């Protein structure tokens, strides 16, 4: 029983990061109707930006309390990645704005691989230890459950970012424009929305969340490499589809479900004699099931296709 | 005469591949290897083009079907060929060849069955969803193969080794020619027009009475079958296979060929398979730049020339829309 709750908790922490990445997919999809394949790679770039910052400013960061340096690291990396996301949108996706969706998807795959392999060239293919931004010491040990400070901070930061995002989307003018654009791009232009700016903003926001996800992920699993974004990126995408793509609470819910299921499968598969390596495939099995039985996702709306 | 031009082209191609095969001992092993890779990539790309280009379903998991074919064919060769060859009249060129052909077809059929299993449920999806599901299927196949036990028939993470090198110039190019012929004549037949109808507008095709699911599954199963054949050829060329060799990047390589050649253009795809395989050889010394070049190529193609290198040719491709 204790083991079950421990697994559940670990799944919750893991799932919260998936949720954070899934939000980026969902936002871009909601506004532009295409899967930004390169999202997982922005996640990687976020972790590497934090890594670089700490290499550069290490002594300064060591002198100030960790919550301050963490906030600074998060903020700077999020800004850097937001700018990168906007640049990618400008160079690769904007020229394809009115082309078939598949062309954009193919470009996105190209962008993703381009970032990964350029990253490999720039950072090297080896795994690097990630600096301890958040102390990894255990705080609670009650009832046989172990929780570390890092895990709590990750969860808290995720919740904070989720609430912040919901505020931006629901209460600000930019959020209103995003929602208008996602409903009908032509009508939103007629109502005075500058679609180009809104799309840029969406990419920036999504990329900033991915960067935060990358840093938090690397704080829990402290080793980084240029391909670290691939698997979390794919799983977060599955989470977005599971929750109903384009739906923000759905992405959060999907992330949690994927994280918890995966951790439970990993924890218990050995009890029934299945190698734990199979847990890598769990997310995709969920994906196929959800797409076959409820393609609009758990919280998504059904869309009718017209000729 | 014009009516039979495709059949004549097929026979000529088969004759040439047999002819070259007879003198292939005189060809430098390095160039022969590149040529065989070209042939295998032609099969892979043309079969993927049937799914992605002609039918408009975007599959990102072609390497998975290749893997199923490669494993199916190799296991047959490793486990059953020894018993089969004496039954076909002892170790002769004919017996080995027949056993190899059976192995390839078994690999192809295994892949086709997988294609059907994945296709039936997931082809109700369209566009980017299907892309992700096939990518997921690619991952599932890799994860399963990797987690099998090392002494089982699949060889676990290390894969299979000691597969006899049966893939000769004749086999590779004869099958490549058959693949091109089958795909081209399928698309150009009355039945095959349905593929293009599904691609151009699925909802409209459906309302005109076309059974869109059946067309999509047919394309998917045929594409998987040829991918399986190519996998078998690949296994019997390399003599070792491992799950990692059939990961997403392998699928990506094939997608790049199809995009460069032009989705829906058989001749373009054949040309692109030749170009990219040779380019791949040139980039072997600069391995770390290879994927950067390929991904940039893909992005630039999409922005500048999404229709691919060649304009549609009247013989192998669908005719251009007349105004």
Automatic annotation (TrEMBL), chain A:
Annotated protein name in UniProt: Branched-chain amino acid ABC transporter permease
CDD domains in the cross-refs: TM_PBP1_LivH_like (cd06582)
Localization per Swiss-Prot or TrEMBL: Cell membrane
InterPro entries assigned to the protein according to its UniProt record, in alphabetical order: ABC_transp_permease, BCAA_transport_permease
Pfam family, any one: BPD_transp_2
Membrane-traversing stretches: 12-35, 42-64, 70-92, 104-125, 145-169, 190-217, 237-260, 272-293
Family assignment from sequence similarity: Belongs to the binding-protein-dependent transport system permease family. LivHM subfamily.
Main location: membrane
Bilayer topology: Multi-pass membrane protein
Alphabetized UniProt keyword annotations: Amino-acid transport, Cell inner membrane, Cell membrane, Membrane, Transmembrane, Transmembrane helix, Transport
UniProtKB/TrEMBL annotation, chain B:
Leader peptide range in chain numbering: none
Alphabetical keyword list: Cell membrane, Membrane, Transmembrane, Transmembrane helix
Record-annotated membrane-spanning stretches: 29-51, 58-78, 98-118, 130-148, 168-187, 217-234, 254-279, 291-310
Pfam families, A to Z: BPD_transp_2
Bilayer topology: Multi-pass membrane protein
CDD domains documented for this protein: TM_PBP1_LivM_like (cd06581)
Compartmental location: Cell membrane
Protein name: Branched-chain amino acid ABC transporter permease
Taxonomic source organism: Luteolibacter rhizosphaerae
């Amino acid at each position: 029983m204790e083991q079950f709750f421990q697994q559940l908790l670990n799944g919750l922490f893991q799932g919260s990061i998936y949720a954070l990445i899934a939000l980026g997919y969902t936002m871009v999809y909601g506004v532009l109707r295409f899967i930004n394949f390169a999202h997982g790679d922005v996640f990687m770039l976020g972790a590497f930006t934090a890594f670089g910052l700490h290499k550069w400013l290490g002594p300064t960061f060591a002198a100030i309390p960790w919550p301050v340096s963490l906030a600074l690291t998060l903020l700077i990396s999020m800004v850097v990645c937001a700018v990168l996301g906007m640049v990618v949108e400008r160079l690769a996706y904007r020229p394809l704005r009115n082309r078939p969706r598949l062309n954009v998807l193919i470009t996105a795959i190209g962008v993703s691989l381009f970032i990964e392999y350029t990253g490999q060239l720039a950072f090297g293919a080896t795994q690097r230890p990630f600096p301890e931004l958040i102390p990894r010491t255990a705080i609670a040990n009650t009832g046989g459950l172990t929780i570390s400070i890092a895990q709590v901070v990750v969860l808290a930061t995720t919740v904070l970012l989720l609430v912040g995002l919901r505020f931006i989307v629901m209460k600000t003018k930019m959020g209103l424009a995003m929602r208008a654009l996602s409903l009908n791009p032509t009508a939103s232009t007629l109502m005075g929305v500058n679609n180009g700016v809104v799309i840029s903003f969406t990419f920036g926001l999504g990329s900033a969340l991915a960067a935060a996800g990358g840093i938090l992920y690397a704080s829990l699993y402290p080793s980084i490499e240029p391909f670290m974004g691939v698997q979390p990126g794919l799983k977060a995408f599955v989470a977005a589809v599971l929750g109903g793509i384009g739906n923000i609470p759905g992405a959060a819910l999907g992330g949690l479900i994927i994280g918890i299921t995966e951790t439970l499968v990993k924890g218990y598969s050995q009890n029934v004699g299945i190698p734990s390596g199979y847990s890598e495939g769990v997310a995709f099995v969920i994906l196929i099931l959800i797409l076959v039985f409820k393609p609009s996702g758990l919280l998504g709306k059904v869309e009718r296709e017209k000729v | 005469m014009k009516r039979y031009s495709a059949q004549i082209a097929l026979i000529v191609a088969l004759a040439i591949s047999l002819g070259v095969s007879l003198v292939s001992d005189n060809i430098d092993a390095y160039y022969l290897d590149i040529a065989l890779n070209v042939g295998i990539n032609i099969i892979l790309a043309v079969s993927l083009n049937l799914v992605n280009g002609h039918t408009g379903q975007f599959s990102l998991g072609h390497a998975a079907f290749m893997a199923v074919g490669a494993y199916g064919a190799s296991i047959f060769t490793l486990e059953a060929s020894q018993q089969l060859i004496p039954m076909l009249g002892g170790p002769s060129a004919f017996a080995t060849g027949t056993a190899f052909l059976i192995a390839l077809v078994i690999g192809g059929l295994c892949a086709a069955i997988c294609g059907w299993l994945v296709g039936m449920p997931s082809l109700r999806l369209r566009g980017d969803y299907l892309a992700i599901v096939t990518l997921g299927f690619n991952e599932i196949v890799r994860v399963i193969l990797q987690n099998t036990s090392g002494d089982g028939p699949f060889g676990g993470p290390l894969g299979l080794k000691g597969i006899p090198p049966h893939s000769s110039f004749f086999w590779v190019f004869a099958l490549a020619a058959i693949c091109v012929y089958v795909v081209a004549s399928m698309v150009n037949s009355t039945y095959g027009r349905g593929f293009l109808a599904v691609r151009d507008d699925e909802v409209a095709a459906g309302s005109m009475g076309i059974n869109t699911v059946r067309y999509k599954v047919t394309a998917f199963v045929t594409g998987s079958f040829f991918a399986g054949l190519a996998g078998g050829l690949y296994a019997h060329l390399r003599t070792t296979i491992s799950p990692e060799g059939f990961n997403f990047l392998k699928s990506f390589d094939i997608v790049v060929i199809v995009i460069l050649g032009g989705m829906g253009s058989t001749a373009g795809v054949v040309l692109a398979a030749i170009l990219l395989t040779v380019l791949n050889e040139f980039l072997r010394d600069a391995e770390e730049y290879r994927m950067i070049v390929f991904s940039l190529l893909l992005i630039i193609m999409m922005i500048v020339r999404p229709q691919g290198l060649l304009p549609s040719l009247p013989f192998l491709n669908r005719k251009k829309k007349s105004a």
